[in-house]
Amino acid sequence: MNTPSALAFVPPLGIPAPTFGITDGAPAPTVYVNEAIGNDANPGTETRPRRTIPTQLAAGTVVSVTGTYTTGHGSPATIEAHGTATAPVFIVGGTFTKGGELTGSYLIVEKGNGAGGWAILDTRDGRPSDHLVIRDYDSQGGFNIASWRNATLSDIVLLRVTVNLGYTNQRETDGDWHGVNIGINTGTTGKLERIWVLDSNLSDCRGDGVQVNGVQGGQLNLGPVYLGRLTGVHNRQTGVGIKQSHDVVVSECTFSKMRPDIDYTNPGAGIAAQYWPARLALIGNTITDSENGIIIASYAAEAMS
After folding, report:
1. What is the pTM for the complete model shown?
2. Whose CB has fewer CB within 10 Å in the chain, the N or C terminal residue?
């Protein structure tokens, strides 16, 4: 996986650099969390840590997580950050067995790992989320970036993440379990704007390494999306799969060993596009040792551009 220094970050060809989350460094911790020895009645100091991460995080909060963390942060225990550009929120470290939901503004989750996946969403009461970043993170649960509650998500970044979902052979059932899912929940009126997945490895996924899927209306409500310098080996479906969306750029990615499944339901492609992605750019990608390099397809009256 390409891991350039944050201070020397150069975006992939054709992709603008994110305005937040690349060079921003975490200050000293303000809240310590250690599930093994902590108690939520404690003040959260290094010697008297909390057991769990507070679900409401004020601007400037820096949470240091030590050891295994088994608390799930699905709704109603969603984490909501109230950071600002000058005082972002950080969650640093930890081995997360369950993960959960991340919402709010100006949050960086970094240097963690674990089987628990994270969903980056609009807030529980339907307000927008913006400037949420996960970086330098090793996940066996994957990531979901989605509007579920009719609001807008904007300026979301996954940087130097590794996802491995344990897919081993082409006879497994198709569960559409993607390494990174970028989408809009069916039946909602939400939007996704300015989404980056950069310098990351997405391998052995039971679906696509990254899927972009705005469902009906995605040509207006999902995009731009920037996928750059990704690598992936042996996913069930593709390295990157692009569906209804607009202004998606896939740049300088490298994929290999994409194989069709037993009945060719998934044809084994490095990059595939279908269901009308509008204005799709593929720049300088390398695909080797795969059944198909690039597949461009559509169905019924749907158009592509």
Report:
1. 0.94
2. C
